[in-house]
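Q: I'm teaching a short session on how sequence maps to structure, and I want students to see two examples side by side rather than one. Could you give me a first protein with its sequence written out and its structure tokens following it? Keep the formatting plain so it prints cleanly on a handout.
A: Of course. Example one:
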Amino acid sequence: MGRTFNMATEKPSQMDREHMLQLKGITLAPYMQLSTALIGKARFAGGNMFRHQIDTMGILIDYGYIDSVLLKAACVHDVVEDIPDYDVELIRNADEEGEEVLKLVLEVTKRKGQLKPDYLRGIIENGSHKAKLLKCADRISNMISLGFVTSEAFIERYCDETEYFIFPIALEVDYNMYQELIDLVMSRRQYLEDSGYYDKQQEE
């Protein structure tokens, strides 16, 4: 049996009233407060991990996702992985949806000692729809930040990882996200081409 892909439709230029009211009813403040614990965590491309949480949430909203659990999880999706001995009860007790939010956060959290390919393969094979959407938004944010990275080997490795693991996830859950990821990978590979990185690799 062939797989069915959910092709996202063209989004309106502005959010309609129904979705604005739905977004208005989501209380994100407790989760944004929890995510401020990541302000001190610097990113390889600059900035900090707190900004990345908010950026990931913004990408989901930009793609039309107004699911409260998904947006709340986006706000704190890295806290368990990036803060040693993080107290998960803080998420569970944040509000009435805390239990569901924590479950989703743990779905996209790489366990200590787990290899990255095994972690991503697990999301492909066992991740929920929301976990896959969150991972795609997370990767879009990361790929945009990659434009500020100068390590060519890192860029190549990240593009390879995106093509092999994230493309299949995006193709399954949101075709427009898939297309953006393709564009981002192509732009980074063009940078490697223009910098002479591939030529140097062949010479070696």
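Q: Perfect. Now a second example for contrast.
A: Example two:
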Amino acid sequence: MAKDNFCIYCGFKLFPEDHFCPNCGKKLDEADVKPNNTFNTTTSNTTSTTTTTTSNTTSKNYSYYKKQVEELKKTYETKEEKVLELLEKKFPNGQMTYGRFRGEVDVCRVNFFKEAESAENMINLSDEYSEKIAEALKEKISTLQSIVAKMNDLQSELIISISNGDDGSNEEIDNLIKEMNDLIDSVKDYD
């Protein structure tokens, strides 16, 4: 949340449409979020400057991961939209097969964004750089990349199937959905 167009966490000048601070990366639109205590409780000018510098360094250290997560979210949205469009072409909306595949894509979406939110929470909750957090972020990003890759494979298989006119051949699509479910189940094992 922005107070007078400045970040309540680091004091950075904001634009009205900002939902995350461009400087410290903190989420701004949640009313129940509390600002970083070390930033607000500093009393001397020197201490405040040191804390701000640390916050900027943290932001820069995790900004690479944050950018990756944001790009993966955009890519996933695009892939999912195309897959749903192709599913509607392959299976008319009234068919039971469409409902089954659509349900699997929906489950994939929920789990993808759960992992993305978890990665973003790690970044936003961190007040200093940690190798352990960086490694956890790399694992989350790897999982997100795997889900996007499976969605891409599903998209490709649907395109091939529709182009070939294989109305009865859903085996490859079934296999890809099963692989996506296995991947999601392996992610759930770590939660």
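Q: What should students look for in example two?
A: Point them to this: The beta strands are 2-3, 6-7. Also worth mentioning: DSSP finds five helices and two strands in the chain.
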